[in-house]
Amino acid sequence: MDPGLFWTFLVSLHITIMSAESPGQKHGFKAFVSNALRPKKSRQTLRKASRSTTDLRLAARPSVDEGPPPPMPAPPMPELAPLHAHRLKYKELHAQVDSQLGERRDYTEIIHSLGTVGVDDDVGEVYEHNDRRPPGEGDIASLSPKLWARIASFLNPAEAASLAIASITLYRRLGPRHFMALEYPENLPYKITFLAGLDRSLPAHLLCIPCARYHVRTQRGTERLRPTHVLNPLFNCPNSTNALNPPPRHRITHGRMLPFTFVQLTMRAHRFGPSYGLTPDTLGRRWQRDDWSHTSRFHVHSGRLLMRVTSQTFAAPGLTPSAQRMLLFSREDYWPYFSACAHWRDGELMPACKCALEHIPRPRSTGGLQGLEHRVKDRWAGDIFDPNALTTLCGFCRPMRRCPECPTEYLIEVKLCEDRADGRFKQAITVTRWSDLGDGKTPHGIQWAAINGKRDDYNSFQHEHYAKRGIASIFESAFTADTLPGQRVISLNPKNKKLGEKGHDWY
User: Fold this and answer.
1) Which positions carry the signal peptide feature in this UniProt record (predicted)?
2) Once rounded to an integer, what is the mean pLDDT over residues 233-251?
3) Distance (Å, rounded) from C-alpha 381 to C-alpha 242?
4) Average pLDDT over residues 201-217
5) Can you state the angle between helices 107-116 and 82-94, rounded to 10 degrees?
6) Confidence bin at 343 (pLDDT 50/70/90)
7) What DSSP string runs through 458-478?
8) Strand, coil or helix: what is 248?
């Protein structure tokens, strides 16, 4: 036999045996699916040792004469990605900031950095060298005292004193005259405003408004809101019992007052931390007095303290005008039993409450000819009289009212509630009030002063916070996903009459 044919036969036989033993060469649908789902091999391709070598196994085997092959050189490091190189480039440019103000010099770089600086980039590295910038006292001292005095003349006493206390150089230029000006009686509001700016550095003290100075808190962390007849001093003050110089407070309901110090504590804790005051939840209370039940709750929104007071009492149907007054007013100070602002006499608050009482269904007499007439009319109309039916208010007493002179809203309702004394359901009138108490810095703030009737330049319908959204909507959305029923918000005093006690509609 020819040797070439013999070797060809052996090679073909070897290939046939190897293909029969390999599991990857099976045919059929099952083998096709298994081969398709098999993980791919490494994408690294084998490189030839030399161009002249045709057999890879011989090329990988070292020869005796040549010795071991030299080590392969390390692959070159890939260049930076274009986007990453772009970020590094602009980081170097952004590091050039003003050493005095810490601001970037070019506005184009500010806009361009919005797309180049990543979310995880440390922006603090840009301003790291600003901590070692030279002090600015030299620039302050370069201006004459007359020029600084001219600058302070355009400021109010509180702002001028704050400028003088900013640094020792400014104090030397301006002198103590701006602090002495705060001691004048006419500058008492400015003094309180200046002292309120020191709250951050005095967590264990509280600003006393009658004394215009800080006192040490005697009940730090345990302050609680008490009724009016309970003496509850939060610090030792010589004017605590001085009736001629009382601390600022707001009337919540009959027998309940909200001192301004609790508003201070709540807003201090909101701004600086829990060690500075109280949380809004600690101010909420439930109490009963003069057959009225009250519930108060507080909430902080956009740096201001909001309050909601819900007052409720059972009302009999068919009350006479004198009985309505006895139900709504206190005979001690002739204020409503429910919570109201200082402008409740001007407008339609009390007429709306009396109108709501008129809608309580009256029981019909069932005896005599009149009762027979009622029964015949009900049978003819197909109606059944139910004294405990749901009460529907009219267009005058149903809408929500907003006081135009202070941030306060009212909602009057007549509900069917259970009387736990006898276990029966009765009609009850409910008056809910929402108010904005202000930022709690000074009692001369616009919200607090307007609610207490000490400002005449406030217009709640034109205020930026409540021009498009009501106080009640803001408050209720913070506690529940459900919203109040759609109510039309109208003015509490549409005719803008300010008669006070001289008017006759409030009583």
Assistant:
1) 1-20
2) 89
3) 67
4) 94
5) 150
6) very high
7) --TTT-TTTSSS-HHHHHHHT
8) coil
Cα 381–382–388 angle (5° rounding)? 105
C-alpha closest to that of 207 among 182, 235, 228, 188: 235
pTM score of the predicted model: 0.70
Span 169-190, average pLDDT: 93
Which residues lie below 8 Å from residue 381, measured CB to CB, with a gap of 6+?
A: none
Strand arrangement, sheet containing 489-491? 285-289, 292-301, 304-314, 424-436, 408-419, 400-402, 489-491
Beta-strand ranges (E) seen in 269-422 are: 285-289, 292-301, 304-314, 400-402, 408-419
Distance CA(165)–CA(179), nearest Å, equals 9
Angle, CA 225 vertex, CA 222 and CA 227 arms, to 5°: 140
C-beta contacts of 226-233 below 8 A and 24+ residues apart: 227/255, 227/256, 227/287, 228/255, 228/256, 228/257, 229/255
Q: What's the first-to-final CA gap in the chain, in angstroms?
A: 135
Could you give the CA distance from residue 59 to residue 49 in angstroms, rounded to a whole number? 6
Q: Which residues on neighbouring strands pair with residue 305, listed in sequence order?
A: 300
Distances (CA, A) of 237 to 82, 247, 480: 69, 10, 41
Q: 196: closest CA among 439, 371, 395?
A: 439
Above 70 in pLDDT, residue 110? no
* pLDDT at residue number 241: 82
Calpha distance 153→147 (Å, rounded): 10
Residue 354 reports pLDDT greater than 80: yes
Q: What pLDDT, in 10s, does the model give residues 249-259?
A: 999 998 899 99
For residue 9, what are its two tokens? 């036969």
Question: Whole-angstrom Cα distance, residue 447 to residue 408?
Answer: 10
What are the C-alpha distances in Å from 39 to residues 27, 43, 117, 298? 19, 12, 39, 63
Q: What is the pLDDT of residue 123?
A: 44
Can you tell me the mean pLDDT for 71-75?
60
The residue ranges of DSSP E strands in 96-222, in sequence order, are: 205-208, 213-216
More confident residue, 99 or 250: 250
- What is the distance between the alpha carbons of residues 208 and 229, in angstroms, rounded to a whole number? 21
Beta bridge partners of 307: 298, 435
